[in-house]
Here is the input.
Amino acid sequence: MDDVLVKKEELIEILESIRPDIDFQTAKGMIDDGILDSFDIISIVSEIDETFGIYINVADLVPDNFNTLEGIHKLVEKYKA
Amino acid sequence: MNYISVYFIAFLTVFFAAYFLTPKKFRWIVLLAASVFFYLYSQISLAVYIVVTIVTVFFGAVILGKINASLKVSLEKKSEEQMPRDDLKALKKKLTKKVQNQKRIVAASVIIINFGILAVMKYSGLFTGFADLILKRFDSARELQPLNIILPLGISFYTFQSIGYLIDVYRGKYPPDKNIARFALFVSFFPQIIQGPINRYDQLAHQLYEGHPFDETRFKMGAQRIMWGFFKKLVIADRAAVFVSTFNADPHSYTGFIAAVSVVMFMIQVYADFSGGMDISLGIAQCVGIEMTENFQRPHFAASIGEYWRRWHITLGAWMKDYLLYPITFSVPFVKFNRFARKKLGLYFGKLLPPCIAMGVVFFAVGIWHGSQWKYVMFGIYNSVLVMFEIIVIPFIISLNEKFKIVNTKTLSWKLFLILNTMFLVFIGKYFAMAPTFSSAVEYIKMTVADFNVLGLFNGSLYKMGLDVNNFNLLIVSVLLLFCVSLAQERGIRIREVFNRQNLVFRWIVYIIAVFSIIIFGVYGRNANAAGFFYGGF
Here is the structure.
């Protein structure tokens, strides 16, 4: 894998600092199944915005983008590009 | 035009006929013509304001759309040029920043113009009040005349709906509308103009522009919903209103118990009035194949204040979430605050405190959305505090409960307790909505506590509030009917579908009873505001 803009490990570190009880590598349907609540999303997005110097558009706050680690990773990479 | 009038029925008949007789391609024009007619009939002199909104937002969005599109093209062009990775990124960032500032200026101007108009219309009373206080110091003889402004029809609703569209275009959610006539229809569509719902462009616009075929079942369901709305409004709401206004006319001649009952009556009045109006509006739209967003979801079954506000005036709450709460929560200062809070206050408080404060601001906004009077400020603060308390404290209590198993939260009795508790909290808040002023609200609360004469239930005092025994009992029976229907709906029963499966004779008996009930038992003559609805005055 070349040209990864954002390291997955860095992302996992951020996510685990907010919800240390979740195994983000394997979790699926985190929004749909209510594993992450809206306050988690606010903290996660805030931390991601700060760390990576991006500003995630409110229009992108949809379940598909936050259900899995891959979804979040893809979203962040989209903004970094 | 008052919904409660023969003229409106006549208007609807002509409207439906015109819609379905026009070729599909031009049906949206019928909608526009009907909406223009409806608006001008109600209020020709103030129509200039909605026109200003339509024009400024339309062109603002078109400009934003152009900026968005040309930025995309520029960025793509730059990507094709040969240059080192980091240089490319820096260049893109600079371009985006420049464009961002242009967009901000455009959006801010449109928002300031429109919310400015709204603010002056709704809150000028505040300023003339303050100015008056100051003037009196220098010259007690002079008095500033309050502007006593009649609000343009639907201004609080169509302003929010249009600005929501503008912000969506700003965010690149969808391209702007290219046709100002079509956009005018989106803003002024008459079923939503009096008191909402506050619809979203991506959900409503295409439905308006597509011509819909006549569908017998759908038309029937729409008509039934309209009838149900009239029942709620004329038989329940306007009847309960008599009780409330009788009390307000001379509050000190009644007991504290009656004060409390009046607040309950007010709750019934406003719910039946507002949700009944929604039934009429959504029913009309349904008849022509348009599905607008629901604005109510049986708020009396809410198990928390947070949930109550997701079931009451749903579209206002949703608007506030998308266009006020999120921008605040994800603003730079708040994002920094979020990180700081999580570091200093630990994960629990850290993740809850920033959104909690943002929610507090939002509910304060919801309070003063109702008006500039102090009582609404109090109403806002009251709901704010309750919601903030729920956000911060409840998760902690839930986890405590899970550890120590104090209460079984899965039981019906517990759910019932939560519902009653929520209703009680809402009841207290309603003192500030029902009383004419903040100080009278406090008076009423004091009265209720000091003089809660429950015997009032049995000594006939309930029949002295403008409603005689028969009218009062009719109100109670109707409310019970409303409650049973809502209970069925809460359990997922689709009333109209079940009803339509019954035999023809049964259905026609119900129709005849319904129509005659509305005509005979409807309370007529309430003309509090332009369109006859409680929320039509906001």
Remarks:
- The first helix of chain B runs from residue 6 to 21.
- Chain B has 19 helices and no strands.
- Residues 526-531 of chain B have pLDDT under 50 and may be disordered.
